[in-house]
Every structure is written in C-alpha cells, then in structure tokens.
Design brief:
The protein is α+β, with helices and mostly antiparallel strands. The protein has four helices and six strands.
C-alpha cells in the first residue's frame, strides 16, 4: 500500500439517474439527447463517474468527449480498456438512440471493440464518434471510433447491434 503522500482522492456527485427516463416520455431519442447536451437534463451517473460527456448529436450520429485520468488506470499502468469500451458503447448506443421515435427504447444485444493503442493521461483528451450503420424496425447497428484529439490517432473502434422495442 502506498504512503499517505501518494494517495489521491476524487469526489463524484450526480443527480437522480431516473430523471432522464422520466423526461423521455413523449420525446424522440434525438430530442432527449439534445436536452442532455443543452443541460436541460442531468448527465447520467456513468458520465460523471468516468468523466465524459455527450457534446454533439444529430440523427444517426453521436459524439462524446472524455479526459482520461489516472483514476481510470489498471494495475499495468494504463487506462483500463473498460473506459474505451464504455465510451464506444455510449457513442454507438446514442447514435441508435437518436433515431428512436417517442415511445421506443433499445437495448444492446452485442458489442465488439478492437483496442488499437494504450490510453494514458499523456494521451490527452479523447473524442468518440458513433454512427448508425442500419436501422430496421427491430434491429439497429452502429459503429464507433475513439480518437486521441491531439494526434488524431485511432485508439479503439467497435460495432454494436441493438434491439429496438416499442413500449
């Protein structure tokens, strides 16, 4: 165990995680996501915990920005792969979410990620872009790329398949 001088702390606060779900009633997916960007709705707790945010959305496209911090490190000295996976899952899922009609929901059936480069605090800010590939009545697919903003280098990429449901 490290000494007290090595110890770091981080405090995370979040709002009611069901506020967005309650607000979703009667809104399209795109309308709801735009409310998150405009800060008319609170960000989900996962975004606060992992320090990322939705910054752009249009139909079939979503973009997140993140700042990899050392609180995300794994025991081998780099940011845990779950961070990249979470950003990609969020961007790809929101790309699909942006196509939902009022009363529709979705859930992830499958996600795949390829980790290309390690991420560290030296990587700096990252940008994760999700784009719709296909939207059917019940199945939607999307792909995503996680990019280091400073260098433009690809860090990870992935794809997802989601089930679309009417409530």
């Amino acid at each position: 165990m490290g000494s007290d001088t090595d110890r770091r702390t981080r405090t995370v606060s979040w709002d009611d995680p069901l506020a967005v779900l309650r607000a979703a009633s009667g809104s399209t997916g795109l309308e709801l996501l735009q409310q998150l960007i405009d800060e008319r709705l609170p960000p989900p707790p996962i975004a606060m915990t992992l320090d990322f945010r939705l910054v752009e959305v249009s139909e079939g496209r979503a973009v997140f920005h993140g700042e990899p911090g050392e609180f995300l490190y794994n025991p081998i000295g780099s940011v845990h792969g779950g961070y990249a996976m979470t950003l990609l899952d969020s961007a790809m899922g929101c790309a699909i979410h942006s196509t939902l009609l009022a009363g529709e929901t979705y859930t992830t059936l499958e996600a795949k990620v390829n980790f290309i480069r390690p991420i560290s605090t030296d990587t700096g800010p990252v940008r994760c872009e999700g784009a719709l590939v296909h939207r059917g009545d019940r199945i939607a697919t999307a792909e995503g790329k996680l990019i280091a903003e400073r260098t433009g280098k690809l860090l990870a990429h992935g794809s997802t398949t989601c089930l679309v449901k009417r409530q």
